[in-house]
Every structure is written in C-alpha cells, then in structure tokens.
Amino acid sequence: MQTQKTKSLERMGWVIGIRPEKITEYKTLHANAWPEILQKISECNIRNYTIFLREPENLLFACWDYVGTDFDADMERMKGHAKTRKWWALTDPCQDPLGSHQPDEQWVRMEQIFHLN
C-alpha cells in the first residue's frame, strides 16, 4: 500500500537580477499577467505569490507559499505547460541571473532564516 504525502506549507524565497532597460517591460507584463499563467501557478500548489523589485541594485525577489507535496514534480508540470513557456520567453530576457546560479537555474532559492507569523 502506497501512502499519500500530506500537504504542508513551505514558504519559499527566490532572487534574480533584472536588466535595467527591461524594468518597465517586466512591470507591464506582470500588470497584465495572462489568466492561464495565474491558473497554472495555482494548479502547481503555489499561493501568496509576490515579486518585489529593488532599485538601484536591480534585484527581483519572489516569495510564495508552496502547499503541495512534491515541489519538483509541480515545477516539471509547470515547465511542460506550453503557455507558461511562451510567458517565460517574454520574461526571461528581462532577467539577469546571479553569478552564483547553477546551469539549470534561472532564479536562485534563498535560505529562510527568520519568520514571524
């Protein structure tokens, strides 16, 4: 008998650079996010998703609550979604990955060191 994992809440934070000349475009894209993208994010068990911009350092910080049981599988489902890949084709050129990112990473996950609810 296979046991089912229980859903739990995991708060996640991610960081990436943004190209200064693309900030307006990036803001415009997100002000008009496609409904199919928002739906896929929810289907992949992400809640309370927020992206912050810090200028003049030109950093994007994203945080969300993951409420699923298998983050890697949910991210693979997202990667397999054709409309999401089209969205990323617009947003990725705006981003400037950090020097410490791994070859298979765009955004870099941050370590949570404090939280007060």
Defining traits:
Alpha-Beta Plaits, alpha+beta, 4 helices, 5-stranded antiparallel sheet, 26% strand, 32% helix, 117 residues
Structural summary, described in words:
There is one protein chain. The protein has 117 residues and is α+β, with helices and mostly antiparallel strands. The chain has one domain (10-110): Dimeric alpha+beta barrel (Alpha-Beta Plaits). The chain has four helices and five strands; from the N terminus they run E-H-H-E-E-H-H-E-E. The chain has helices spanning 23-31, 35-43, 71-79, 82-91, and strands at 10-18, 46-54, 59-66, 95-96, 108-110. Strands 1, 2, 3, 4 and 5 form a five-stranded antiparallel beta sheet that branches. The chain is globular and about 45 Å long. The protein starts with 9 loop residues before the first strand and ends in a 7-residue tail after the last strand.
Topology, element by element:
Layout: E1 10-18, H1 23-31, H2 35-43, E2 46-54, E3 59-66, H3 71-79, H4 82-91, E4 95-96, E5 108-110
Task: Describe what is shown at a glance.
The protein has 117 residues and is an alpha+beta fold. The chain has four helices and five strands.
**Average of per-residue pLDDT values:** 94
CA-to-CA gap between the ends?
37 Å
> What spatial form do the alpha-carbon principal axes imply?
globular
Question: pLDDT under 50 segments (min length 5)?
Answer: none
CATH homology superfamily: Dimeric alpha+beta barrel
Strand content: 25-35%
